[in-house]
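Ticket opened by: R.M.
Priority: normal
Category: complex prediction / small molecule

The reporter submitted a protein together with nicotinamide-adenine-dinucleotide and asked that the result be attached to this ticket for the collaborator who will pick it up next week. Submitted input follows.
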Amino acid sequence: MDKLESARERINEVDRKMAELWVERMNSVREVSEYKREHGLPVIDTSREAAVIENNQKYVPEELRGLYADFLRDVMDVSKSYQRSAEFSSPDTVTLSLGDRSYNILIRRGELKNASEHMNLDRKVLVVTDDGVPPEYAETVARQCKDPLVVTLPQGEKTKCLESFRVLLKAMLEKEFTRKDCVVAVGGGVIGDLAGFAASAYMRGIDFYNIPTTTLSQIDSSIGGKVAVDLDGYKNTVGAFWQPKFVLIDPDVLKTLDKRQVAGGLAEAIKMSLCFDKDLFGIFERGDWEENLDEIIRRSLVIKKTVVEKDEKESGLRKVLNFGHTVGHGIETAENGRLYHGECVAIGMLPMCSPEVRKRLERVLLSLGLPTGTEADFAAVKSAMLHDKKSEGGGVTVIRVNEAGSYVSQKIEFGELFAELEEFFGEDSK
Ligand SMILES: NC(=O)c1ccc[n+]([C@@H]2O[C@H](COP(=O)([O-])OP(=O)(O)OC[C@H]3O[C@@H](n4cnc5c(N)ncnc54)[C@H](O)[C@@H]3O)[C@@H](O)[C@H]2O)c1
Ligand SMILES: [Zn+2]
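Result attached by the on-call engineer:
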């Protein structure tokens, strides 16, 4: 009896170890699948199976080899069904991997009506939107919630403030939201940043889902976890890092967005293409961006997710996403609301490019109806740049693109940067 017990114990122990090894194997399978998907390779590939079985035979005694081959085949079958069934292997999903804060981003037309298949809406849900977003989007989401509360705020950057933050927190408190309830943003970057910040703070943080409805938010702001409000006109001064649990991108909702907003958001995709992906820049140069909008969104998100995975809290690499923004933010403040964020980024990228890239970029911007210069007073731009919270001592780190698809980062004194910009503003702002 004792012998039987101890043999069973050993088997239990082996099973426990095997479970750990199996999880390790599945994680690697997942990693390989994600890599392949991102590089456009077929995710399921059976050509290596025979080699795997062959190579592993040497580790087992001869009399067990046949059985071991059967076992390995089973293991590989399970891996394949994991690759097929798991959402990460679907071509319209991008996974942002941040350990236990990882989440999926789904890009699928018409999926708004199926939001509850991806998000747990079977609880109290604060649905936040603004009055510029067609109300049926938030209504479509609310209909899928067990206990929804829709809050519609006035549209515009001014809504991204502490007062709205308070409105959202109070709404949740009055409706007795607990830590188990959640917030869903249905809107552009303003609503996403604000609702995400409210979710990060309510009861020290509750689940947050983002359903971005502008090009800017679908391409850029809805992922990465930066949530914030402005304070006394200073952008994003109060905020947190709070990752969403899921991001649902339905490009169909962009049909109601006006052309100027659409183009503005695309500037962020152009930014990412210039730094990382010359093929993506090629789509803009060919001029067929409208047919390729889903692909533009997906590729931009893959770039952003790769950067965020390496540097979630912006201690280094993530600064590359500020390409065009150092000058762009200065212009945005100096223009005082006349130009959209993306339009300012578009202009801000130009002086940071080599002459060759600048020419190509100018053509792309003009084809999208984006501005290539500003009327803003250069003194006001300079002063705004000096106030930017990203300044470091007497200088700032700028990102430059000398060749499409790659960037260099440079720490530069303001005096030197301003001297360089004088030329640009001199020739382009008139
Ligand atoms: N968190 C981040 O990482 C990050 C990154 C970049 C920008 N941002 C922030 O994003 C904000 C800008 O976001 P935005 O450009 O989306 O602006 P926005 O949220 O103000 O939306 C622009 C306008 O479009 C309207 N709208 C939204 N969706 C619509 C739709 N589908 N159809 C018709 N109208 C629609 C809105 O009502 C609004 O008037 C800024 O506050 C910026 O700081 C955040
Ligand atoms: Zn931006």
